[in-house]
Specification:
The structure is a homodimer. By secondary structure, chain A is mainly α. Chain A has a domain of 91 residues: Arc Repressor Mutant, subunit A. The longest helix of chain A has 18 residues. Chain A is elongated. Chain A binds a DNA duplex through helix 3.
DNA sequence: ACTAAATAGGATAAAAATATCCGATTAAAA
DNA sequence: TTTTAATCGGATATTTTTATCCTATTTAGT
């Protein structure tokens, strides 16, 4: 509905890695894709992008995996993850795809949609990995079903 | 951000045809794709789907084109157009793609997103072709730029 | 040192979305 | 009745997204 598969997997993977990291564990690819119910090889690519984008850390070699520090978990927002996987996600935000949709040059749904757009942006920019992974940890939310 | 290209074009085409119909004109493919800034052949396919889906009417042969009746323009909602082009658009509404995301089985963003989801659904189900095409007609909104 | 277990990265494949082309059909107008 | 201007529908092409495979590299443990 709103995110691509790659972004969906990327967000879920980040949340899982964060939750495991909070409990002192590092996660490997197999474990991650099992827990977020995603194709392993594709998830590997996405994890690479997240590492390159500075969202998560990778540890190579036997016993390696992916991890995050608590300080980072607190700081990283949903928007950071999304942008690491699609740099111009926040650009094309007109519902009807107009390049320059604005208050003075609106598409026919602009005014009715702008509230939703604002709330969505707020959600992305203010939701932290911490709150999402905490909910997962407490059993108040799930990454698959 | 939210709709596919096909749906974007479909909505814009419907709005344009509605506006023209309100002024007593019928629109043909070439004219439509010019006014909504979309690829002609692809738009033809989308118009076919809209006709099959009962959203707009087509008139074959020379001087033909596409049109709508005022009564229909008043009745048709954004959601009707969207569903004519993607029957299960309103099904997969979990931000993280969970098959069965719900109040009791929520994904980690469910509770923060549900308000937005509700408003989006409301917008789709309550915005009429009439209001969109009227705004276009009055020069208060645009289909391209 | 050697082996095993991991991520990294390049090449490729498959599927879906977007887009084009062309012949068939329809209907108005000359 | 012929021509012309349209939509319809099937086949195909292109592009993007999703997904897989395989080799290289790194590192822990024996």
């Amino acid at each position: 509905m709103i995110f691509s598969k790659a972004i969906e997997y990327g967000i879920k993977a980040s949340i899982y890695v964060a939750q495991q990291s909070m409990n002192g564990y590092r996660s490997n690819l197999k474990e991650i894709s099992e827990h977020i119910d995603s194709p392993e090889a594709f998830t590997a690519k996405i994890l690479q992008q997240l590492v390159k984008g500075g969202i998560i850390h990778s540890i190579k070699g036997a016993g390696g995996g992916f991890a995050l520090e608590i300080k980072e978990i607190k700081k990283i927002k949903l928007a950071d993850i999304v942008l690491a996987l699609d740099a111009d996600f926040l650009d094309s935000t007109c519902v009807l795809g107009l390049k320059h949709c604005s208050e003075t040059n609106p598409c026919p749904v602009h005014h009715k949609y702008k509230g939703i757009k604002k709330e969505t942006l707020y959600l992305l920019k203010n939701t932290t990995l911490l709150e999402m992974s905490t909910n997962l940890d407490k059993g108040l939310a799930y990454l698959k079903n």
